[in-house]
């Protein structure tokens, strides 16, 4: 199969490495000539170009730019594609991407490989990045079964775990376990930073240990990433935040009323409910 | 110096090991004869007994039972003490302990060594547990300078970092960085567990990775510990939760109004504000 990859960073480059190793021909497009050259040198692609026209012969195209660029890239790409070309993406939100993309190119199926490293860029690309990791595909009612099968086979080539669901189900699930934690965690940092007494603030900073470190980690991460989650998964995130506020209001109420038995049951429940997520 | 330790678990046992190594005489009291025996065998104490009367000759007594037992143990202990005996504790909240304890025994000074391991009990006690760790002492206006100096010297013997503040400042600081994170984190777990669609819940559980794991860790911990924080540091925790809810409400509002520039600045600020806590 001829696979086109637009965006040769960590994800695009790692996909290319694995698929080439499986015997597929991989064509890569990047805005940077230096990235094109390194992708060829590293064996992530057979050919690379800054020109989307390189992908005219591709059977499947995987869009790996930043989320905000996925739809514009698809628009720029489609004049070059053969009508039977199947297009997918790797964005971490799905509804906001799948709806316009499928409207523009009916043979578009959303995808989200949930793997990564702390590093970015083509130099960070590695073989086997997706082994055992979840890879969500989000077909819709318009999706052709044969097209979905094609993508499932490609995901299987990566030894990733395929999960099939609607774009909306994906977005609600990642809102719970990825986007809500970022806002919860960021608000924790912002709150602690509001301590007005400099002695208490300094003491809090000194005494903070693993509990604060872990709970605040994702809230102290990349602001662009947090903003992107909010912008592109706004509906599901707002829904999650609404439920979260109700949960927090309950805790406040139990504390105000010194309802210790109920608070204890709550903490027993959260202890029991966490392991299925790990 | 003759030091008495009541409660020969991880903290009490580790204190005894270090202080004996510094040449102090250590007398231990535990409710369990087996613990007394193991504390002697492990070298954590010179003598041990179930009887608080053993501590009649102690210059300094350190109370290391669970928080709810600290005041009752002090009440049971004081008939045995010489009038000049200095008493301290190792509880993780201070105001709720220091006020009644100092009222009952004026030469009481609150203490909080912030070290620990995942293990509990005398078998987990170890030399050097407190090296480099914060050790908060919370004198009040009634505290004698000489008594505070005595405790500072003992903390220095452990090579811990002494921090001096009021009981109230301690409690507000640990509310921010320890007790608030537990409630924030527990509410995250409770919220995600409320997803009504079993397919989305299962997907969320499958897709959850390090972000959810870290943010939910302290909220999925020991329910007794979480309840204890809430019960004994209720005022400071409620204050922290109130500020936290306001921070969260702001995030919700920015999302509702799509005020992306302000949300981005907020996430930039939380990224910048986290490192001083690490």
How would you summarize the topology of this molecule?
The structure is a homodimer of 278-residue chains.
Chain A: E1 2-6, H1 10-21, E2 25-29, H2 33-41, E3 47-49, E4 60-63, H3 67-77, E5 86-89, H4 95-104, E6 108-113, E7 134-138, H5 145-157, E8 161-164, H6 167-192, H7 198-207, H8 210-216, H9 223-232, H10 234-256, H11 260-273
Parallel strand pairs in A: 1-2, 1-4, 2-3, 4-5, 5-6, 7-8
Antiparallel strand pairs in A: 6-7
Helix pairs in contact in A: 3-4, 6-10
Estimate the mean pLDDT confidence of chain A: 97
Structural class of chain A: alpha/beta
**CATH topology annotation of the largest domain in chain A:** Rossmann fold
Helix content of chain A: 40-55%
Sum up the overall morphology of chain A in one term: elongated
- CATH homologous superfamily assignment of the largest domain in chain A: NAD(P)-binding Rossmann-like Domain
Q: Work out the radius of gyration of chain A.
A: 22 Å
How would you describe the oligomerization state of the chains in this entry? homodimer
* Number of beta-strand segments of chain A: 8
Task: Determine and state the CATH class of the largest domain in chain A.
Answer: Alpha Beta
Q: What is the tally of helical segments of chain A? A: 11
Most extensive interface, chain pair and sizes: A-B, 91 and 91 residues
**How do the strands of the widest beta sheet of chain A line up side by side?**
3-2-1-4-5-6-7-8
């Amino acid at each position: 199969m001829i696979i086109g990859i637009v965006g040769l960073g960590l994800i695009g480059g790692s996909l290319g490495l694995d698929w080439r190793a499986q015997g597929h021909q991989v064509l890569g497009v990047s805005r940077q000539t230096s990235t094109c050259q390194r992708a060829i040198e590293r064996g992530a692609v057979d050919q690379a170009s800054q020109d989307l026209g390189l992908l005219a012969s591709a059977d499947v195209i995987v869009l790996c730019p930043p989320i905000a660029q996925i739809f514009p890239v698809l628009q720029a790409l489609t004049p070059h594609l053969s009508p039977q070309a199947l297009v997918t993406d790797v964005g971490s939100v799905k509804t906001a991407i799948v709806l316009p993309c499928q409207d523009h190119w009916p043979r578009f199926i959303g995808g989200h490989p949930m793997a990564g490293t702390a590093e970015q860029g083509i130099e960070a690309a590695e073989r086997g990045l997706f082994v055992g990791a979840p890879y969500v595909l989000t077909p819709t009612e318009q999706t052709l079964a044969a097209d979905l099968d094609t993508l499932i086979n490609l995901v299987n080539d990566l030894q990733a775990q395929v999960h099939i669901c609607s774009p909306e189900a994906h977005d609600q699930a990642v809102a719970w376990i990825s986007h809500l934690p970022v806002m919860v965690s960021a608000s924790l940092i912002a709150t602690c930073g509001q301590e007005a007494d400099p002695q208490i603030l300094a003491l809090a900073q000194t005494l903070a240990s693993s509990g604060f470190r872990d709970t605040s980690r994702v809230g102290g991460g990349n602001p662009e990433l947090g903003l992107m989650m909010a912008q592109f998964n706004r509906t599901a995130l707002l829904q999650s935040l609404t439920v979260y506020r109700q949960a927090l209001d309950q805790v406040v109420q139990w504390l105000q009323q010194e309802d210790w038995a109920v608070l204890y049951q709550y903490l027993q429940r959260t202890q029991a409910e966490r392991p299925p997520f790990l």
